[in-house]
Amino acid sequence: MYIYGMSTCPFCDLKNNERNHILQEYEYTVLLMANLRKVPGQLLVIPKRHLERFSELSQNERDEIFDIIANVEKRLINHYKAGYEITQRYKPYLEKDDFAVRHLHFHVLPRQKDDVLEEQRVQEHQLHSSATKEEVEELQSIFKTRSES
Length: 149
Hints:
The chain is of the alpha+beta class.
């Protein structure tokens, strides 16, 4: 089912919500300005079809999304004269709330050297640790072959 036919998902009924600022609409995807922005210029790239995981995208949807993100990247760098960050999360273990939208989407955030996300990045960096031998072996066993299981 496409984006305009569902009412339970906030991304499946974008045209009927005046808070949404749709910037571009494509065959499989919508580009809009994020309502709850962490930084100015934050955008969302959202497939029209309701799905939760990246692996559920068709090849046409994947191609279009990556083309859009590449175009957005160029425009943001050109306009903001800065960097950017792309995020996409799949967290089925979270309870449904205003921030846990169960519809695949990509955040594209313009980034500046001292923006509000820099402190968060520093805190996240402090959480990093070296992989244990067991962790390396576990991941190597998952990816021994190129085929998916």
